[in-house]
Amino acid sequence: MSSNTTDNTGYKSYLEEDGGRKGIFKWILSTDHKRIGLLYLYAMMGWFCIGVVLGLLMKLELIAPGKTLMEAQAYNATFTVHGVIMIFLIVIPGLPAVFGNFMLPIQIGAKDVAFPRLNLFSWYIYILGGILVIISLFGNGPPDTGWTFYAPYSFKTGTNMLPAALGAFVLGFSSILTGLNFIVTIHRMRAPGMTWFKMPLFTWTLYGTAWIQLLATPIIGITLLMVAGERILGIGFFDPAKGGDPLLYQHLFWIYSHPAVYIMILPAMGVISEIIPTFAKKTIFGYKAIVLSTLAIAFVGYFVWGHHMYTSGMSGTALWAFSLLTFIVAIPSAIKVFNWISTMHKGSISTEVPFLWAASFIFIFMIGGLTGLVLGSLATNVHVHDTAFVVAHFHFIVFGGVGFAFFGAIHYWFPKMFGRKYDPSWARTGWITFFIGFVTLYGPMFYLGVKGMPRRYYDYLDEFHGPNIISTMGALIMVTGFLIILVNLIKSARHGEKTTEMNPWGGTNLEWQVPTPPPLENFDEIPVIDKAPYKYD
Amino acid sequence: MSDTTHHIVPYRTYALILLLLLVLTGASVAVTQIELTRWATVVALLIASTKSGIVLAIFMHLKFDQPVYRVMTISVVLLLIVVIVFTFFDYGFR
Ligand code: HEM
Ligand SMILES: [Cu+2]
What we know:
The complex is a heterodimer of chains A (about 525) and B (about 90).
Chain A: H1 25-28, H2 33-61, H3 72-91, H4 94-107, H5 116-135, H6 153-156, H7 161-188, H8 201-233, H9 246-280, H10 287-300, H11 316-344, H12 353-376, H13 378-384, H14 388-418, H15 424-451, H16 465-495
Chain B: H1 11-30, H2 40-59, H3 67-91
The structure holds protoporphyrin IX containing FE and copper (II) ion.
Protoporphyrin IX containing FE (HEM) binds near residues 307 and 375 of chain A.
């Protein structure tokens, strides 16, 4: 493929095609998968800013022992709302809703997803779920259960947990419908010649993710309804006083929520598998191994939920079984890392901004994964469970993983999506500031956890003071980096230099063979695929 | 493609299936009269699964559709079974 075809005069891009609607209706009534992807992006950007502010408030509270900014109750509410927003409104919909919607149909050579109206409907459900979360902030005070809504506290607390749980319930439907849409799209709408093993890897990870969305999400739905039944009707599923079992809640919650962490991370791995070969100018190493490890992660990920409950009082048999399975699920993740590294080996790497995010993803993800193994083995888990160590682990994985992949993805696909260029030097400055801030923020929390600082408290012993100061400094640096990135992208999306270059990075997939920005239905003529993906000669 | 030809199921089949489902519903009520002790749950689940199997196969046309849908459905049920079995690693050994 020649990489710089710029000749695409005389067509209307999806941004110019307004369906005869005006103003905001161009967006909120459009069933174009690309516009819907951007609708999610804008909504998520708003939520993310709120989540970041809440996170920063917590870190400022923790800059010194004792009360600095807020009381214990306010702190509990802050970490709960922070968690609910970040998990249910950002990282779970995250990459599939934004980049999946935008890129999936293009990557498989289709004009749209299988059910465009359902797709728009999913976005409205997403907004409704968000509104419910906002409602939970008023009345009896914001929820204070943590994002996990653990019983029995969740049906005893006097705070407004019900609207928040209902919000998570509603958001689940958005997730299920998106998953369903993607599965049908991938099965039915691939361009001629695009066999399963010619599919781009991002699409593959969306496929694995979609099955998890479809099959695991109903379980959290039922579980949250059970909590509602408990609060409103006092049924007693989880209430020992009525013969119920609080551990049943934890089982049900994690039967969903562990697979949910793979809803978050699989598409992130997909993005990295797109970026690495493009910037190493090398065919991806072990395409099939990556595909199979994606499916293996999606599958085995269903059976490890018990590793969140080692200290809850499960049977001894369950303890070793879940620990064993947890170790097994780490294998396919490691396979991917080896494949990415091997792809870069002897490649001609250009360190453009998307590549920087991808490379730092691998670094951070490995720390997250290896500390996962510390948590996955029984003896060490007892020591660090419910400490700052766990918080550091999942921020390395979820924020360092999904977040870095998200930033990588937006810097990778930005010119294609908006038809404009961003300023690469500001993007670089943002990246390095963010990276340094990130490690400074979460790194010390590993140490604090090992030393015994529990999570979810607004106060701590004097001996933990030093590392907490460093950590808060890290938070300030990271937020600075985030603001640089955000301002650069927003400015560039509005006023950046226009570009119609089809393939600025020299990528090999179909999204680089449609005009920039793509026309309404992506392809004038459905392409016929005759070669394997990621081929560089 | 093959899915453009729709299989038409005669109304009589539907009526018979409805009858069968009603009979099975009666059966699951009836067995509660027998003292089955620890097997009561198993029997109730068996009858219920038979019913949903029939609904899936006939009413939801799995029996007549392409095999891929059958594979999907069966895998999903298997997954659910494994998840339940694993939950009993805890409950069965406390
Ligand atoms: C090598 C793979 C991984 C292993 C072995 C692993 C292991 C664990 C274990 C054992 C815990 C429970 C710690 C405790 O509470 O005592 C945990 C917590 C957590 N992990 Fe992982 N993990 C892995 C990957 C991931 C991934 C990929 C994600 C998300 C994308 C993730 C997200 C989380 C979250 C969110 C929690 C904390 C939940 C909470 O209590 O609030 N982990 N991990
Ligand atoms: Cu887990």
